[in-house]
Amino acid sequence: MAVAPQSPLARNALALINAKGHVTVDAGLPVADLVALAEAAAKWGVSLTLRRASVRGTADLERIAHAGRGRVTFDLAG
User: Fold this and answer.
1) Angle between helix 8-18 and helix 31-44 axes, rounded to 10 deg
2) I need a labelling partner for 1 at 20 to 30 A (CA). Which of 34, 36, 57, 71 fits?
3) What are the tens digits of pLDDT across the range 7-26?
4) Quick one: DSSP state of residue 10?
C-alpha cells in the first residue's frame, strides 16, 4: 500500500474517498499521492478522475491505473 498523501489537497481528497465520495483531482499532484488516492478508491469502490492526465508519462499513469484496479478515469484532453 502507498504511503499517506502528503499534500493538503490530496489529504482532503482521501478523506472524501474514505467517506465513499467520488473525487476529481489534478494529475499534477505528486505521483505517490495519486497512487494512494487510487488505492483508496479501489478499496472503497468509488471513482477517482484525474484531470490533465496528459501531463504524466505513460509509466506513471499505468502505475496509478494498476493501483486503482479499474476505479480511475484519466482525462487526457487537457
Assistant:
1) 10
2) 57
3) 899 999 999 999 999 999 99
4) H
